[in-house]
Amino acid sequence: MEGRIIKGIGGFYTVLDAAGCQHTLRAQAKLRRQRMTPLVGDRVRFTIEEDNNWITGILPRKNCLVRPPVANVDKLVITVSAGTPKADLLLTDRLLFGCRHAAVSPILVVNKADEGEEEARRIAQCYRDASDGLFVVSALEEQGLEELREALSGTVHAFGGQSGVGKSTLINRLYGLTLTTGALSDRIERGKNTTRHIELICLPDGGMVLDTPGFNVLESGLIEPLQLRTLYPEFLPVEGGCRFETCVHNKEPGCMVKRAVVAGEIDRGRYERYCILYEEMLQRWRERYD
To answer: Is residue 236 part of a domain?
Structure first.
């Protein structure tokens, strides 16, 4: 039989089969010998025997994320706040390129528009060409949620972003759930993670949402610095027009990306954060054998 792991606790995995039935299974020892650890989201083969229910194989993964460990995610809803806490756009950029690198479709949601309409418009303008979907919403006032719900329909998706931006509240309002939400600390302006395990929640539209505190960082591993430019869709219209074929759009003369920034075709703040991330990757690449 085949199914998908929707929960894993203490070496026991809950697998949902094609008929909608759930089975509690353990992983066969051969998977440990092969250094294959089942993850929530995995498509697996399994057997049901008297007193012995086993996961016997893990089907090829579309992607595999590290923190929290989960596989086969279709979309990551990167959530930022137009109010409190102040949006961490460098973190947002890390999540965006991490999605591209991990073959996860990024959806950007600007939440708390009720707290700052002008800030919401500013952030949306900054990322107008950066994601596979952009939504300005207010989870508190339930504004803009229908369009977001439609964009996520039928997919396996998770929510990511800094703490306190309203990820659990968004999930609750979108799907009528009652996930625990953490109060925002006024002193440090950071939310408190409230989810204690990883679980895929089945939705009426056939999709699934990951019940987690959210992705704050996507572990992208060591990326060759030259590859970073390919993970920015805003650069594509002028890609290949630079004076140098290996232009990384940083300090080289004759760079079409820099010209597009000056012309207002690419957001300046987004470009400046790209340069920060490029320098970070370049340093990591130089130290890879240390």
So the answer is: yes
